[in-house]
Amino acid sequence: MKILNKLKVIVLLSSLFLLHDASAQKLWESKYIKLKSDGKLAYRPDEQGNIIPDFSRVGYQQGQKTIPNAPVMDTLYATGNDDQQKIQKAIDELSKIPVDKNGIRGAILLKKGVYKIPGSIKITANGIVLRGEGEETVLLATGKGQRKTIIASGNGKLEEVPNTRIKITDNYVPVGAKYFNVANTKGLKVGDKIVVFRPGTANWIKDLKMDQIEDKPTLVQWKADDYHLEFERVITAIKGNRIDIDNPIVMAMETQYGGGEVYRYTFEGRINEVGIENLALESEYNGDTDEDHGWDAISYNRIENSWVSGVTSKYFGYSCVNLGNFSKQITVKDCKSLSPKSQIIGGRRYSFNNDGQLNLVMNCYAAEGRHDYVTGAKVAGPNVFYNCRSENAKADIGPHHRWAVGTLYDNVVTDGEINIQDRGNWGTGHGWSGANQVLWNCTASKVAIQNPYVSGKNYAFSLNANLYDGRLKGRPVGIVEGLNKKGLMPLSLYLKQVEELKKK
Predict the structure, then answer these.
(1) Ramachandran region of residue 187, left (φ > 0), alpha (ψ -120 to 50) or beta?
(2) pLDDT averaged over every residue in the chain
(3) Strand ranges (DSSP E) for 46-97?
(4) For 249-273, what is the HEC assignment?
(5) Cα separation of 242 and 255, whole Å?
(6) How does pLDDT run across 128-179, given as a tens digit for each residue?
(7) Strand 229-239 to 242-245 pairing
(8) Which residues contact 35 (CB under 8 A, 6 or more apart)?
(9) What's the CATH code, domain 159-266?
(10) What pTM was estimated for this model as a whole?
(11) What are the UniProt keywords, alphabetically (predicted)?
């Protein structure tokens, strides 16, 4: 497969670079992940059986298919006036034709020029690709008003299939596990889409001390019913009462905190096979702190198995790409977020924001953002930020607030901070920002890495940074191996995991 060959080249070149520099540095391995004699990864469990998760199946089609080159079905030219209606009409007309065997309707090609967009362009059907000719195809968000320039979203929400909920019977299902036992498997079969449900409970929040965040007028203490997590998975095998799943557990299922359950689900309105390619998006603005203008360049939600590729955004107030909580298996690659315009305060400049699950952001660049590679509240992983860079950062990279789980930051470089910590009463009471977060060969000016009191650990391997305590003292220290020590093998955990997946 082409994608496998490309990954092999990347892994080989990375390895050659390290070996060339071996005279100046000693190659080493983590005690948690080692390379066996056959070159495969071996994961060492902790005292509870937790391991570093497998992040290989994130992104478009779980990395099992190459992003398609959709055939051009319509070609448009800029008029220099309002082109929004013309582009929207082309999208709506293309939405009426049937999808092909791969779920694709086709691409709309926007030729070089400036397309003025006073509102939002909306994609609400499967198989639509909006493609430009690179940075000379400019979609310009004109006029005033905070809005999203391109919105790709279906409708509806995840719905539990009635009478399919089954209790997980294991007392503890560790992080990294891809199987567990249930009370029975009646009504389940291989290929079923299921939710692995991890309840929020009052005693869990109490043990996390998130019911006692230092008070202030806007504070919201955590409440159990707000912290149920729904992990979307697919059944790959059934053996008696054991269920095997395609992606790992990234937050332990613990009987003391309500255990876990599984149930089948539907999501009828979710769309797929949508792509935004090779475009520049810009926003008009009135001064560096203006906030009455384009806010998100691209927004995805209620969407799966889709992509954003080769997009450059300039002058937006919030993001280049914003993935909503119902976005799944999205690949964002080779994108740039430049020169955002807003006040430099909370709620602004989240260059590449991910609130969904099984998403991949790779080979991206951000300048002058606040939270350039970031997750939000109750984000159910796994998710990956790979080979991304941030310059002139105004704040930190990492899980931003309220318990994101299972994120890999792999070869992320910033001149700002990367923090995984208890954020306390920042915002409306962000508290513990994340658990089971992994930093692998990352570089930053300084880093705080703390472990939550219960239900997870956070890791940093071969971190090139100054380590500091974080905002709040007295929190458990995260696991740090090889601080300012080069030569960690493999150079990229994500690429190595993908390489092993392709060989199976």
Answers:
(1) left
(2) 95
(3) 72-76
(4) CCCCEEHHHCCCEEEEEECCCCEEC
(5) 17
(6) 999 999 999 999 999 999 999 999 999 999 999 999 999 999 999 999 999 9
(7) antiparallel
(8) 29, 41, 42, 489, 490
(9) 2.40.30
(10) 0.95
(11) Signal
Query: How many whole angstroms separate alpha carbon 259 and alpha carbon 479?
Result: 26
Residue type (1 letter), 322: N
Contacts of 181 (CB under 8 A, 6+ apart): 168, 169, 170, 241, 242, 243
Contact between residue 40 and residue 496 where contact means Cβ atoms under 8 Å apart: no
Query: Tokens 């059944």 — which residue?
Result: 235
Pull the structure tokens for residue 233.
């998975």
- Which amino acid would we find at residue 32? Y
Residue 30 CA to residue 481 CA, distance in Å, equals 7
Q: What is the pLDDT of residues 3-23, one digit of tens each?
A: 445 555 554 555 555 455 444
CB atoms within 10 A of CB 40: 12
Domain ranges (residues) in the chain: 1-44+404-504, 159-266
Query: Which pLDDT does position 25 carry in this prediction?
Result: 72
88-115: average pLDDT = 98
418 within 8 A of 387, measured Cβ to Cβ: no
Residue 178 phi, psi dihedral angles, 5° rounding:
-120, 20
Residue 161 CA to its chain's centroid (Å): 27
Residue 14: its H or E element? helix 2-20
**Dist CA 42 CA 283 (whole Å):** 48
- Contact indicator for 325, 290 with CB cutoff of 8 Å: no
Whether 441 contacts 461, CB under 8 Å: yes
Sign of the CA dihedral running 139, 140, 141, 142 = negative
Kindly state the tokens that stand for 12. Answer: 């080989």
Whole-number pLDDT of residue 504: 80
358 within 8 A of 87, measured Cβ to Cβ: no
- 141 φ, ψ (degrees, to nearest 5): -75, 105
- Cα-flanking dihedrals φ and ψ of residue 273, to 5°? 55, 45
Q: How many whole angstroms separate alpha carbon 296 and alpha carbon 64?
A: 29
Three-state SS at 225? helix
C-alpha span between 305 and 60 (Å, rounded): 5
Unique residue bearing structure tokens 């949508």:
274
Taking the CB of residue 46, how many other CB atoms lie within 10 A of it? 14
pLDDT at 500: 96
Contact present, 354 and 371 (Cβ < 8 Å): no
Q: Is the pLDDT of residue 325 over 80?
A: yes
State the residue for tokens 């939550």: 452
C-beta of residue 251 within 8 angstroms of C-beta of residue 229: yes
For position 2, what pLDDT does the model report? 47
Token readout for 14 is 């990375």
- DSSP E strands in 302-395: the ranges are 303-309, 312-314, 319-323, 327-333, 336-338, 352-354, 360-362, 365-367, 373-375, 380-386, 389-391
d(CA 242, CA 181): 4
